[in-house]
Amino acid sequence: MESIGPLEQSLHAARARVLADLAAGEVAAADVVSMVEDSVVQRRWWVEQWPEGAEFVAGLVAQDVQDALLETYGRWPLCPVCGSGDPHALEVEPELGPDPYWVCHKAGVKVAAVGSLGTAAGGTFPS
């Protein structure tokens, strides 16, 4: 059995983390999963060119999917922290760095690590 190299491990982990967040928000429909797969394909090329960037892939895939969803569905993920005012999306920070988090800039707080949105709102997350 052939072992999976670090590049594939980082891509699989990024895919799993973003899918977990999508599932937490109940937006993991087939077309949305396809957006994740498209991003992973694009990021595979990117990280092949810059292997040191493998630890940044989860945040980049999350941002890619967030951008794709904005074009077709609207803002995602919606902030679970701010209960009043206009609904707004969380943002990934750092934009290019390890250990990405979903952040509410309006409240100035880290909400959850990418892949952990389900725990940020007691197991459910508004979509």
Number of helices: 4
Shape: globular
Rg over C-alpha atoms, rounded to the nearest angstrom: 14 Å
Please report the distance between the alpha carbons of the first and last residues: 40 Å
Class based on secondary structure composition and strand pairing: mainly alpha
- Structural domains: how many: 1
Number of β-strand runs:
3
Low-confidence stretches: 122-127
Strand content: 5-15%
What is the element string, with H for helices and E for strands? Answer: HHHEEEH
Strand order in space, largest sheet: 1-2-3
| Main β-sheet description | 3 strands, antiparallel
- Rounded mean pLDDT score: 89
Helix percent reads: 40-55%
Question: Topology, please?
Answer:
Elements: H1 6-24, H2 30-49, H3 57-72, E1 91-93, E2 101-104, E3 109-113, H4 117-120
Antiparallel strand pairs: 1-2, 2-3
Helix pairs in contact: 1-2, 1-3, 2-3
Characteristics:
127 residues, mainly alpha, three-stranded antiparallel β-sheet, 3 strands, disordered C terminus
Report on the structure:
The chain has 127 residues and is mainly alpha-helical. It has one domain (6-120). The chain contains 4 helices and 3 strands, in the order H-H-H-E-E-E-H. A 3-stranded antiparallel β-sheet has the order 1-2-3. Helix 1 crosses helix 3. The model is unreliable at 122-127 (pLDDT under 50).
